[in-house]
Design goal:
Layout: E1 12-19, E2 22-27, E3 33-38, H1 40-52, E4 58-62, H2 65-68, E5 76-84, E6 89-96, H3 98-105, E7 111-118, E8 124-133, H4 147-201
Length: 205
Amino acid sequence: MEIKEPLVTGQEIDIEIMPLEGEYKATTVDGTDFLERFSVESAHKIVENWKADGSKPVLCDVDHSSVETSNTQAAGWITDLWVDESAKRLMGKLQVSESGAELLNGLEYRYVSPVLLFTEDNFPYYLDSIALTNTPRLQELRPVYNSKDRKDDEKITVANAEEKQEQVEESKNVNINDTETTKENNMEELKQISIDRAQKELPNE
């Protein structure tokens, strides 16, 4: 998502969790490869199961540390889930922790990767956890904190500042030129007045 200001502890941001269609290669925790399948129905099922489980916050760790190790430190928590059919995404609201905000603000991580439970026919039905990562499996999902957009914004800001500075300089130059022109015109007028006065003061022969 395009976040313009630094994140703070406890702030909530909307993130894309999974698409609503398509098939993707995936690997189970024990290393078995399979083809995961997504659909609108499976996304709604995930939301239904989350609500049936009491809408408990879902852990967001770093690089799937809670799955692969005993480290369950939270980079944040998913506090809400919903299906956005117009965007063709399962969406979530991520509340960042202090460490999560620091990682995202520092542009150390940009993406998320969900840990899903699947039915026998490989459709997801439950969101177990989610992780900040730089190697997302579902690469079509938009970054959580888009550093490219952020750098582009900085470039635009610099460009705008430089453009404004050029406009100021041009304005100064115009003012200077106008002032010089005014001075020259005033001098010519004074010269003409002096000549007129001198001619009037000349004695008649």
